[in-house]
Write a structure and sequence with these properties.
The complex is a heterodimer. In chain A, the strands form two sheets. In chain A, strands 3-4-5 form a three-stranded antiparallel β-sheet. In chain A, strands 1-2 form a two-stranded antiparallel sheet. In chain A, helix 2 crosses helix 5 and helix 4 crosses helix 6. Chain A has one domain. By secondary structure, chain A is mostly helical. Chain A has ten helices and five strands. Chain B has two domains: 99 residues, Ubiquitin-like (UB roll); 142 residues, Fumarate Reductase Iron-sulfur Protein, Chain B, domain 2 (Orthogonal Bundle), CATH 1.10.1060. Chain B contains ten helices and seven strands. In chain B, helix 6 crosses helix 9. The chains are: A mainly alpha, B alpha+beta. Chains A and B meet through helix 1, helix 5 and helix 8 of A and strand 1, helix 3, helix 5, helix 8 and helix 9 of B.
Chain lengths: 257, 269
């Protein structure tokens, strides 16, 4: 049995792959990086997040007394910073610990590895066996908190069709509806949810409801990456649209009955 | 053997790794190309016309034996399932052996690592029979684990997994995606009585996997290794080891598993 590793002879820093392997990590860095930078700016701005009847999803639920459009003012007027700071941890934790986003940012930002069969950037590697990456194991809790917040986003969407007591549809209403549908799809296609609704079973016999839920979750889960990217982009666009309306840059086309 | 460029569109220029142990280099060959050829056909033609001592492992030429794994232009693939018309006319093609394992000669690597890991997996242990002396397995349960049984053990997933490909030191504590597929098939089996979750975490090193999905990308059998085997195993390990509520529930109920699968019941009369 030969014991000498091939890597001693063949392994190289420059990968042998001749295709555009660097394109995917580059696109992820650009899209994810742009979203992170924009959401940091928008979340800290503490202005232009409400344009009647639209509330930016980055600020929902608004839980401070100083909020322009409060849902549950459980934090008093002493809080003068952006209300988005108080809730950002929940959707952020859901995305950061998401199995799909982990694949993406481990590749694009950590270069572990940057692409398949392309060498790791680091000489030592312990994966998710140590802190802080051990925290990834609590993704199911992030799912529960983020899904709870979805109820507020659905309420915001309902209110977005109410124009001073009259039913109506504006471009903002449709954007908020698209946003909440995509976020709901993203949550419903989550790997942890698929496990919690039935994946933990070894036998689906005598568990027909859980089998049905697991089957639906399986179907959605196969498209988890699409839900993840679409919901990310639309959250950003929805906030941007409401921000531009509030700043007077855009006018909302709407039909009020 | 020649270093000339292909003279016509019906010739192919292929660089093949030649060497034993740590020494070696890519050697270029130009041979005629016929319609319908796959990479393995070209390697065989080179073996027949230029390099009779070229070592290459192959068997079925149908993508079912898993023998002819190699790296074609740096991408782990089965040579028998990689058609030559995937490449542009005149394109130089580089063939290297799978590089996660020690080289024996040319395109043949020593994959004993995998056989040693396989020995460490506790085998299927059947649950007690039903009251009528039979064991039953239902179609929905068969469907879920059937995917895992498609594995042909080509070890391309092992080759591409950066945990052992780029970090030799992890081979002791990490078994690799092929064995997580095997472990998932056993763990999700409704008639298996063994509990391997502690082993999966501690001995097979599931936590080393950072789910970059390269194993899924290279699998010639289209097994969704990451989504359907590794991540469900991770979730089971979370319940057994990391989930504080599951832990509290176990303490309250005084038993090890709060999400234990239902025990088989005797069929109704």
């Amino acid at each position: 049995m030969a014991t000498t590793s091939l890597r001693a002879g063949v392994r190289r820093v420059v990968p042998e792959r001749k295709d555009l392997w660097w394109l995917e990590p580059l696109v992820i860095v650009v899209v994810l990086g742009t979203f992170v930078l924009y959401s940091v700016y928008a979340g800290l701005a503490n202005a232009n997040y409400f344009y009647d009847p639209y509330l930016s999803p980055l600020y929902s639920p608004c839980i401070t007394a100083n909020c322009v459009h409060p849902h549950l003012p459980i934090v008093g007027a002493y809080w003068n910073l952006s209300p988005a700071i108080l809730i950002v941890a929940f959707p952020l934790a859901f995305r950061v610990t998401c199995y799909y986003y982990r694949r993406s940012y481990y590749r694009a930002f950590f270069w572990a590895p940057p692409a398949c069969a392309v060498p790791d950037a680091r000489t030592a590697y312990a994966g998710e066996t140590r802190f802080p990456f051990l925290i990834q194991n609590l993704h199911r809790y992030a799912l529960i908190f983020a899904t709870t917040l979805l109820a507020f986003l659905w309420w915001d969407t309902f209110l977005a069709f109410n124009f001073n007591g009259r039913l109506g549809v504006g471009l903002g209403s449709l954007l908020l509806l698209t946003n909440v549908v995509l976020l709901s799809g993203y949550s419903a296609s989550c790997h942890s949810l698929r496990y919690l609704v039935g994946g933990y079973l070894d036998s689906f016999h005598r568990a027909s409801l859980r089998y049905r839920l697991w089957s639906w979750a399986n179907w959605l889960n196969a498209r988890h990456a699409r839900w993840a990217w679409a919901s990310l982009v639309v959250v950003g666009l929805t906030d941007l649209y409401i921000r531009l309306l509030s700043m007077g840059v855009l006018t909302d086309p709407r039909i009020v009955f | 053997m020649t270093t000339e460029a292909p003279r016509t569109a019906t010739e192919v220029r292929m660089k093949i790794w030649r060497g034993e142990g740590s020494g070696g280099e890519h050697v270029e060959y130009v041979v005629p190309l016929d319609p319908g050829m796959v990479v393995l056909d070209v390697v065989h033609r080179i073996q027949a016309t230029h390099a009779p001592d070229l070592a290459v492992r192959w068997n079925c030429k149908a993508g079912k034996c898993g023998s002819c794994s190699a790296e074609v232009n740096g991408a782990p693939k089965l040579m028998c399932m990689t058609r030559m018309n995937e490449f542009a006319p005149g394109e130089e093609i580089t063939i290297s052996p799978v590089r996660t394992f020690p080289l024996i000669k040319d395109l043949v690597s020593d994959v004993s690592f995998n056989y040693e890991k396989a020995k460490t997996i506790p085998p299927f242990k059947p649950k007690p029979k039903d009251a009528d002396g039979k064991r039953r397995m239902y179609q929905e349960d068969v469907d879920r684990v059937q995917e895992f049984h498609k594995c042909i053990e080509c070890f391309l997933c092992q080759d591409v997994c950066h945990v052992i490909r780029d970090h030799e030191e992890n081979k002791q504590s990490f078994s690799g995606p092929r064995f997580f597929v095997r472990l998932a098939a056993l763990e999700m089996h409704p008639l298996d009585a063994n509990d391997r979750l502690d082993l999966i975490r501690a001995k097979h090193g599931l936590g080393f996997c950072n789910i970059t999905k390269c194993c899924t990308e290279v699998c010639p059998e289209d097994i969704h290794i990451t989504d359907n085997a590794i991540i469900p195993l991770k979730e089971r390990v979370v319940t057994a080891h990391y989930d504080p509520i599951a832990w509290a529930l176990r303490r309250m109920r005084g038993k090890r598993e709060d999400f234990a699968p239902p025990q088989p019941k005797p069929p109704s009369a």
